[in-house]
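Page 42, continued from yesterday. The earlier attempt failed because a stray header line got pasted into the input along with the sequence. Redoing it now with the clean sequence only.
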Amino acid sequence: MRSLHQRSKIWLPLLSVTAAISLGYSRISFAQQLVPGDILSADAVAPCAPTQHSACGQLYVINRQSGSTTRQVFHPEKGPLGSNVEGITYVPGTLASAPTILMVDGNGGTGQRGSLTQIDPTTGTRQVLSDFGVGDSKTLGLYPIAVYARPLLSLLGLGLLPPTDYWVVDAMAGTNNLGALFSVRRTDNSRRLVSDFGDTSQGPLGAYPNSIVARTSLLGALLDNYLYMTDASAGTNTHGAIFKVNTIDGTRQLVADLGQPVGTCPVDPSPLSGPVAIAVAPLGVTNVGKLYVLNSNAGRLGKGVLLEINPDSQPVSCKVVHDFSDDANSIPPLAAGFQPGALEWELNGSGTPTNKLLVQDGDGGTNHLGILVEVDSTSGATTILNDFGVGAPQGYLPIGLAVVR
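This time it went through. Structure tokens are written below.
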């Protein structure tokens, strides 16, 4: 596995997975399993079989109604194997398209420059949509780390028409390897460079962009051409930043510089702190439109902090929703600092958003095998949903996180 860029300040273990006891690996499909509210978690370095060291990648399916967890191991007969699975997203079915799961692999594709893969949620088969090692100098990737899709028309997050583009964040592409945002056309899988984070003509420079989200509206992308992205190492003294990116011309605006005080949120003293994930409060919840950001290695004991940011206020406001250092005395600690972290908005069994977020730490929990936590966006109260170090299936490095809609 290629290690993450030094500027990212995010820890990933070397690919050395110890031989594991048999945990009942099964070649399941997702048929009759995925229902609204189910949680999908991608594991970056899960071995191909319990006694093997090589990585193939896998997905966990966590049923919110029963609390049960199943897994799909990536086997060759279902499509290309994973080598460093990073981000995933669930694209709901529309009037014109079937549901799908999108996954980016930072070390997939030609020359290990990354790939975007589609997973059929019924059969579990996988197909590469875009090989980031094939293309011209502007469209070559280097380390795709996050993927996002939104329907062209939406109502409460449910698609009426399929998305025209899939959006992929590459942490190390672009001028001087300062990151890039790519789009992949759904109809023909063509790829274009949208925003080069090393190009000053498009706005403030990035350093390591790593997550992406859009604010919801009744008409979706027809009325809102902007995406919001975090960058773990941009901003003052590399404390990280949040950008607003125009998807038409790729221009960037700085929403928040976490190296400067933002509202009531002070600059975190840790030089390792930086945002690693972003989510937005959807239609139907109390704080609709507000951004929620995981600031890794931040807080009283460096266990990570969940921030709420209102980009519409002048000046931009910020408050701490939860400092995971306050959970450090629990056994196991809820978080190890978000190494790496993921964030999604929670849905109930009918697909309606709740007022809670899902927070995943790939290095948290028992034996540092990963943990998934629910956080109330209003009170900050936390509940452990899944400790990947307890029982089966066991985690290795759960990274990607998505919710079925």
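Notes: Residues 6-403 form a domain with the Neuraminidase fold (CATH 2.120.10.30).
Reminder to self: strip header lines before submitting.
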